[in-house]
Design goal:
Number of domains: 1
Distance between the termini: 53 Å
Pfam family, one: V-set
CATH superfamily: Immunoglobulins
Helix content: under 10%
Number of strands: 10
Domain Ig-like: 23-120
Strand order of the largest sheet: 3-1-10-5-6
Main location: membrane
Radius of gyration: 15 Å
CATH topology: Immunoglobulin-like
Largest sheet: 5 strands, mixed
CATH architecture: Sandwich
Protein name: Ig-like domain-containing protein
InterPro entries: Ig-like_dom, Ig-like_dom_sf, Ig-like_fold, Ig_V-set, TCR_alpha_variable
Structural class: mainly beta
Shape: globular
């Protein structure tokens, strides 16, 4: 019997009063169903001015958010087990890649962009 995993990516955009209202965050795909052992990649596209802090979170059903990664520098690549994230500030895109998915990967994955002024 084939096992299918359902993973979802939701976008959480963190804004403060000094952030330009034209900033935006978009995701793809919004949901994804894959077979166990397959790879999955989610993309987070954003537009902004100034310093960017890109966060990736995971939320299991009826549980609190868990911060997986914080990315600041373009070209940055981080790993945590079978998870890999990248940040490309030129293209204003980040990706989250899950290698060899397992049933325990079923969750909601959130991308959040924050802008902060120096010293705040």
């Amino acid at each position: 019997m084939e096992k299918h995993l359902m993973v979802a990516l939701m976008i959480l955009s963190l804004h403060r009063s000094w952030v330009n209202s034209e900033d935006s965050v978009e995701q793809s795909p919004r949901t994804l169903t894959i077979q166990e052992g397959m790879n999955a990649t989610f993309y987070c596209n954003y537009s902004s001015r100034g310093s960017d802090y890109l966060h990736w979170y995971r939320q299991d059903l009826r549980k609190s958010l868990v911060n997986l990664f914080v990315l600041i520098t373009s070209g940055e690549v981080k790993h945590n087990g079978r998870l890999t994230v990248t940040l490309n500030t030129k293209d204003q895109q980040s990706s989250l890649h899950i290698t060899a998915s397992q049933p325990e990967d079923s969750a909601t994955y959130l991308c959040a962009k924050a802008q902060c002024s120096p010293g705040i």
